[in-house]
Amino acid sequence: MTGEFEHRHGFPPGINQVRSADHDDQAAARTLAQITPTPADLVTFYESIGDVTWADVGNGYFLDPAGDVLLQLQEYGVVYVGTGPKTHGLVIGSNGGGLIYVAGPDAAVYRTRTASLDEPEFDKVADDLRQFLELLERSLTRFNADGDPGYL
To answer: What residues pair up with 101 in beta bridges, in sequence order?
Structure first.
């Protein structure tokens, strides 16, 4: 993607990487699993992946490091994503347009409709983290092919 980026867009690419998890990322993932009902696939993800930063894919896609997810949880608590008593989740990332991704306790991934967590409304974008990551991959593939990542 970055090889042709400057030629296509007229400016150099920013940071576009999938960073491997380090010891601190893995420790934060274990802490998340101990203090809140974190979906198992999210903990497994953070054992290997530190974060995802695709600043140049459309407006950008960002999956936060486990330490940032933990800090968000400690400072603001869980995010209410539904109508039932156990429908809360963890903020795990965002897109460059300000929409926020939240992993629910059922492992589903939700996206805010606006760039705010004040009285947010959510849309379910994936049944689980695996499906969400596949959608991200499709966005990258589509962006490489025609410059449009779609709407995730």
So the answer is: 93, 111
Q: What is the dihedral of CA 91, 130, 58, 6, to 10 degrees?
A: 120
The whole-angstrom separation of Cα 108 and Cα 127 is 4
Going by DSSP bridges, is the β-strand pair 61-63/49-54 parallel, antiparallel, or unpaired? antiparallel
Q: Which residues make Cβ contacts (< 8 Å) with residue 68, sequence separation at least 6?
A: 51
Tokens of 7: 């030629």
Sole residue written with tokens 């969400």: 132
Question: What are the beta bridge partners of residue 63?
Answer: 52, 93
**What is the pTM assigned to this prediction?**
0.91
Low-confidence stretches of the chain (pLDDT < 50) are none
> Residue 103 in contact with residue 87, Cβ under 8 Å?
no
Q: What is the DSSP letter of 21?
A: P
Q: Specify the pLDDT at position 145.
A: 87
Residue recorded with tokens 């705010």: 116
Of 90, 99, 91, 105, the residue nearest 121 (C-alpha): 99
Helix (H, G, I), strand (E, B) or coil at 3: coil
